[in-house]
Amino acid sequence: MTCRRARIPATAICASVALLLFSVSSSAEGLRGALGVDTLRATVGETVLLTLTLSGEGEAGAFRIQPPALPALGHFALVETGQRNEVSWKGGKELFSVACTYTLRATSPGDESIGTIQVVYEQKGKDGSNTLAVDGVRITAVPRTAPRVIVSALGLLVLFCIVALVVLLRGIARRKREAAKLVLPSMAVADPAVAALARIENSRRLKVEGNWGAYGAEVAAALAGYLTASPVPEMEALQGEIEPLCERVRYASDRDAEHRIEECTRKAELFFKTKIKETFK
User: Fold this and answer.
1) Domains of the chain (ranges plus CATH)?
2) Which among 71, 69, 141 has a CA at the least distance from the CA of 107?
């Protein structure tokens, strides 16, 4: 395996302190090596950044380093590699460093012991190659914790009570509506004022549609039905006023006649409501 030049991931910068804490170092003639890791534990699916740093004195070309390969891994998989070269000066001496990075992804739970890494290098002006042994590290892959949905028996009971209450309230409201529908016709049959008022209420759609002639005729009919059972001079006068007005608006628009029909209707409604209160109080 060969290392390629790449930018160090941002996680490596954030984990610089961790690399110092979780690192081991070794040295050979003119060359020092250290292996660091940003975390010692990773959940399955997460990544670990392993950094092998090689440094020494001399110009950048003083050492020819062959980037090492990692030993075989059991619980981690190699995802990406990278390399960074740096040159600095200290006390009038040129210093160089090479950082090889290995991004590992945890694949299965277990302890992973990364053994000694053998770094083969050649030093300028000397024959043959040398080997620097850098001690390995131990990292652990932990299983991913499955989310648990915990619903208490009390929570289920509360939810059941809420649903039951909603169903009960809807049932009560429905029964009240049905009872109202049943009571109104019986009252209408028993009391002429209720019947007359109900007929006026049911005829309002004719006014909305602009059919003032039919609307006035329904009001007049409601008054006639009441007067048959209980003659009242005031209501007889209203009936007598509405009937000719209906003829005026039946085939042509007449704002004044429409206004008078509306006034007569309000008077009739007020009369019937008063009679109903007196009857059922």
Assistant:
1) 10-142 (2.60.40), 169-280 (no CATH)
2) 141
